[in-house]
Write a structure and sequence with these properties.
The protein is α/β, with parallel strands linked by helices. It is 39% helix and 12% strand. The protein has four helices and five strands, in the order E-E-E-H-E-H-E-H-H. Strands 1-2-3 form a three-stranded mixed β-sheet, with no helix packed on it. It has a two-stranded parallel sheet with strand order 4-5. A hairpin with a 5-residue loop joins strand 1 and strand 2. It is elongated, with a radius of gyration of 20 Å.
Length: 145
């Protein structure tokens, strides 16, 4: 059985699918239960409020109770570090054989979608190194003879 969440300092946002915790006390956690979620969910909370723990708990509950499998859950965050930490904690808890988990940053997720489902395969997404190579080539071509 997973941890329970205290309701201290947590407020429900007036819009469905959003849990907002503007100023919970240290040690109180976001109250989430995967049975109460029907569709997308966004968690908004400040530093030290237990966002990572809440997401990991929710993910674990959904998978263990067969509400969803790993391929049906999308976890997005802003930093590579947070995405890696969430994935690490989930892997430690579930210790299962899974195909593909969708845990990444917003940027990585959108980049992946564009690469895999690009309407124009001739157009490329460039990473930092590729961008610098293209810019060097363009600048070299612009130099007068």
């Amino acid at each position: 059985m997973g941890p329970t969440y205290e309701h201290a300092g947590c407020l429900e946002h007036p819009f469905p699918g959003i849990i907002n915790s503007p100023a919970p006390t240290k040690g109180s956690y976001l109250p989430l239960d995967s049975h109460d979620i029907d569709g997308p969910l966004r968690v908004l909370a400040g530093p030290g409020t237990g966002k990572t723990r809440a997401l990991v708990d929710l993910y674990e509950q959904a998978v263990r109770e067969r509400i969803a499998d790993r391929g049906q859950i999308l976890v997005l965050t802003f930093s590579n570090g947070a995405a890696a930490e969430i994935a690490r904690r989930i892997d430690l808890r579930l210790n299962d054989d899974y195909g593909e988990a969708w845990i990444s940053t917003f940027h990585s997720f959108c980049s992946r979608l564009l690469r895999e489902h690009s309407p124009d395969p001739e157009r490329l997404l460039l990473d930092g190194f590729q961008e610098s190579m293209v810019m060097r080539k363009v600048l070299a071509e612009m130099e007068p003879d």
